[in-house]
Design a protein that fits this description.
This protein is of the alpha/beta class. The chain is 33% helix and 26% strand. The structure holds adenosine-5'-triphosphate (ATP) and magnesium ion.
């Protein structure tokens, strides 16, 4: 079994304004995601899901613990190398999307290719158009991001995350703005990408039906990570 991601003893604390003791958001978290695998993380609002994804995506560092991505221990890497590894390896679908509203869908999706360098404008546009086609936005290549609906913007963010063919996809509520049919199509794409050998998908969602499509479900609660779904969860989901 190849290992895509390994977290060991990850702890993250935040200093809160007006409070003396720091808040421990992640408390000694360890997990392994095998290559070709997918996991879903569920948990209440404020449980630390986005904090965990930011650490996995090398956008934040833990106070304690290590993150190993595809066999490379990232703990001691300098910021430049972390940024380079992030760009090459990780496709991130942010909860807040982080899109540039003045750009066209095509320009927005092509941004990660600019950082990569070495491709002509024409080739970058071709790849962006292809990625947009895969999320059902072939007709909206030239629309400004600000003119797109919430769900269309979410799909632009997904196309951008996939454009560099990432080995690790981190998706924070990637279908929150989508109807069930479109959500299922987009998730088919993310799961299919992750299943390719040696890749992985880590999905954060409040949707338990969607979470069950992953190989494994974890619950974050009071800083700890548990295997499986919470006992008290109302079920089945009526979505
Ligand atoms: N930079 C920060 N400084 C201080 N506190 C923070 C910071 N980032 C997150 N927190 C706190 O950490 C906790 C976890 O936040 P996080 O965004 O990870 O939650 P979440 O599980 O993603 O919630 P949601 O489902 O609402 O998106 C929250 O209480 C939040 O206020
Ligand atoms: Mg969050």
């Amino acid at each position: 079994m190849t290992v895509a991601v390994e977290l060991s003893g990850v702890t993250r604390r935040f200093k809160l304004r007006g409070r003396k003791d720091p808040l421990t958001v992640l408390d000694d978290i360890s997990m392994v995601v095998p290559g070709g695998g997918s996991i879903a993380i569920v948990g209440l609002s404020g449980a630390g899901k986005s904090t965990l994804l930011n650490i996995l995506g090398l956008l934040d560092r833990p106070d304690e613990g290590t993150i190993t991505l595809f066999g490379k221990d990232t703990t001691a890497l300098p910021e430049r190398e972390r940024a380079s590894l992030r760009g090459k390896t990780i496709g991130f679908v942010f909860q807040q999307l982080n899109l540039l509203s003045g750009r066209s869908a095509r320009q927005q999706v092509a941004v990660p290719l600019l950082y990569e360098g070495g491709r002509s404008l024409r080739r970058r546009n071709e790849l962006a158009d292809e990625a947009l086609r895969r999320v059902g936005l072939a007709e909206r290549l030239h629309s400004k991001v600000s003119e797109l609906s919430g769900g269309e913007q979410q799909r632009v963010a997904i196309a951008r995350a996939l454009i560099r063919d990432p080995r690790l996809i981190l998706a924070d509520e990637p279908t929150g703005a989508l109807d069930p049919v479109t959500a299922a199509q987009v998730m088919d794409l993310l799961f299919a990408t992750a299943r390719e050998d040696g890749r992985a998908l880590i999905l954060v969602t409040h949707d338990h039906v969607l979470a069950r499509r992953a190989d494994r479900v974890y619950t974050l609660d009071a800083g700890r990570l548990y295997t499986g779904r919470p006992e008290a969860e109302p079920e089945p989901s009526r979505k």
